[in-house]
Amino acid sequence: MTGSDHFPRTVPFRPSTAFIPWFIIDFLLIVALVLACTVLPVFIAGTLDLFVAMAILGSLILVTLVFCFWTRLYYDTMAYELHDDELRWRRGVWFRTTGIVPYNRITNLDLRQGPVMRWLGISTISIQTAGYSGQAVPEIRIEAIEHAEELRELLRSAVRSCNARGDGTGTGGQSSRVVDVPVASTGTSMLILDELKKIRVLLEQQKK
């Protein structure tokens, strides 16, 4: 596989710094949606105590500040690396995760871009592999990438090259499509859930 100026081979590359405002904006949109569905109707009805309202507001501000700090730390851990026959990646604040995706197992390369991402000029490439086919969650997402079309073409070329050599279990039926996601909070929600699941497992192990 040959790299490019933006994505050189065997040299780690990182998401755009726009990843940070994207995650924070997505988080604030989720918070606003929750407030609109829960607190706002109670406030309009006039049954919400002022002390309770101030406590909720203070808690949300604190959570938002913590989330902003966590987002920066999370961004600093993210890296991807293109090799001759595989894509390597790593990420995680409390729980570090590394992975390898062989090109010959890639079946789908979906380019996703919601309204916030379009405004920031970034995209996410969702990579589906043979082992993950039929599942809603892709094996890996290359998030907040500028020049995403260029990266997708590099990956497509690598997949075609590996399948042409017949050196793996790839199905050769990979697709490449662009999906315009109305709300760009999917990546944020999945990463938060993943971190929370790992924390829960750790707490359960400590109780034993």
- Roughly how much helix do the residues carry, as a percent range? 40-55%
Strand order of the largest sheet: 6-5-4-7
How many H/I helices?
Answer: 6
Radius of gyration: 20 Å
> Biggest β-sheet: count, sense, barrel?
4 strands, mixed
Overall body shape: elongated
Proportion of residues in extended strands: 15-25%
Strand tally is 7
Uncertain stretches of 5 or more adjacent residues: 167-186
Order of helices and strands: HHHEEEEHEEHEH
What is the CA-CA span between the terminal residues?
Answer: 48 Å
Summarize model confidence as the mean pLDDT: 81
SS content category: alpha+beta
Q: What can you tell me about this protein's structure?
A:
This protein is α+β, with helices and mostly antiparallel strands. Residues 167-186 have low confidence and may be disordered. A hairpin with a 3-residue loop joins β1 and β2. The protein has helices at residues 19-37, 39-45, 50-77, 115-120, 148-165, 186-207; strands at 79-82, 86-91, 97-102, 106-112, 123-129, 140-145, 175-179.
Keyword list:
single chain, 208 residues, alpha+beta, four-stranded mixed β-sheet, three-stranded antiparallel β-sheet, 20% strand
